[in-house]
UniProtKB/TrEMBL annotation:
The lineage of its organism: Eukaryota, Metazoa, Ecdysozoa, Arthropoda, Hexapoda. The keyword RNA-binding does not apply. Keywords: Glycolysis, Lyase, Schiff base. Its EC number is 4.1.2.13. The keyword DNA damage does not apply. This is Fructose-bisphosphate aldolase.
Length: 395
């Protein structure tokens, strides 16, 4: 009797065109979820070639993508006003360093303003970089805003006009892009909401970047802020990376044409228990193995407020650790390449050459660390052992 009633119910549903069309639509959509196309072969080859060129062994990335507000704070420390010309003069110092810089620096991340600036003799910065075989890239996120109804967490904005901006930057000569999403560790954070938001935003950015011919550098930045230990930092990093790569897959991002810029797995800045470089290396590589596909050609670590020497030593330990590492592991440093440069330059033209030497020395040290060949104290720079940490750091 019960089976008879069920059969009548099914016949009623199937005879009703509204229900039939709904079920048909669901079936079609379920079938369509696995349908997608790869980028055309020519674009795949271009993206893959650029990504691999950026992470060629022994070289890394110089991050010079501070916002006008961010570099303004640095200019203030050397007694200079935050003007377009002073920002230009500092970046000129970096880009006109001796050609030997390109032996360890493969690429530079720029801020929008810098793409259009020129040196004193009228040479566009983009041209200066290309002459040195340094690949220019561009920061495309528009900084963070509060994530509504979260516990002091943030989301990164800038997706609305991203395709148009990427197309413009590609025409100007940029070959890759970068987008940062910071993640805070606290008693109740990161929240599921923040992790999901980070993953979806980074995946959408990466997809748009590739559609315009730019290699996306994906930067989920688990911050140093906090008193968490290395175990908590590792677990959070693993969860974030898993979510990010699931989202990248869902958005059909071509992984061979991407790079990852993550944090190293370290204890929080206020944690009383400090870890050795070897322990940091094991935790970092373990987290990466659990979340980053081998298809990704390279991983370029951010320094996250570590001192210059600390960032170099930890990178060296990561490359020396006896573990499976299917990607090139290198650096994408801002503060950890430039702290000594700022200290020596001090805003004075007479110090430019000396400041450039500091940059070259630190780049060489990190080039060796990217090969696992750096010896502690092998390079001495003016601010090498000074912490670059600042709470809620704004780029």
């Amino acid at each position: 009797m019960q089976r008879t009633r069920q059969n009548k119910t099914f016949r009623t549903i199937w005879s009703n065109s509204k229900y039939f069309n709904l079920l048909k639509s669901i079936a079609v959509n379920l079938k369509m979820t696995t349908y997608f196309s790869y980028p055309d072969t020519k674009l795949q080859e271009e993206l893959k070639k650029t990504a691999e060129a950026i992470v060629v062994p022994g070289k890394g990335i110089l991050a010079v993508d501070e916002s006008n507000e961010g570099i303004g704070k640095l200019l203030a420390t050397v007694g200079l006003e935050n003007t377009e010309n002073n920002r230009r003069k500092y970046r000129q110092l970096l880009f006109t360093a001796h050609d030997v810089l390109s032996e360890n620096i493969s690429a530079v991340i720029l801020f929008d303003e810098t793409v259009y600036q020129k040196s004193d003799d009228g040479t566009p910065f983009m041209e200066l970089l290309k002459k040195r075989n340094i690949i220019p890239g561009i920061k495309v996120d528009k900084d963070v805003v509060p994530l509504y109804l979260s516990e002091d967490e943030v989301t990164t904005q800038g997706l609305d006009d991203l395709a148009q901006r990427c197309a413009t930057y590609k025409k100007q000569g940029c070959r890759f892009a970068k987008w940062r999403c910071p993640i805070k560790i606290g008693e109740h954070t990161p929240s599921v909401q923040a992790i999901h938001d980070t993953a979806q935003v980074l995946a959408r950015y990466a997809s748009i970047s590739q559609s315009q011919g730019l290699v996306p550098i994906v930067e989920p930045d688990v911050l140093l802020d906090g008193n968490h230990d290395i175990v908590r930092a590792q677990k959070v990093t693993e969860v974030v990376l898993a979510a990010v790569y699931k989202a990248l897959n869902d958005h059909h991002v071509f992984l061979e044409g991407t790079l990852l810029k993550p944090n190293m797995v370290t204890p929080g800045q206020a944690c009383p228990n400090r870890n050795t470089p070897e322990e940091i290396a094991v935790a970092t590589v373990t987290a990466l193995l659990r979340g980053v596909p081998a298809a990704v050609p390279g991983i370029a670590f951010l320094s996250g407020g570590q001192s210059e020497e600390e960032a170099t030593i930890n990178l060296n330990a990561i490359n020396k650790v006896q573990m499976k590492k299917p990607w090139t592991l290198t650096f994408s440093y801002g503060r950890a390449l430039q702290a000594s440069v700022w200290k020596i330059w001090a805003g004075k033209d007479v110090n430019v050459k000396k400041a450039q030497v500091e940059l070259i020395k630190r780049a060489e040290a990190n080039g060796l660390a990217a090969l696992g060949k750096y010896e502690k104290g092998g390079v001495t720079t003016a601010g090498g052992n000074e912490s670059n940490y600042s709470k809620n750091h704004k780029y």
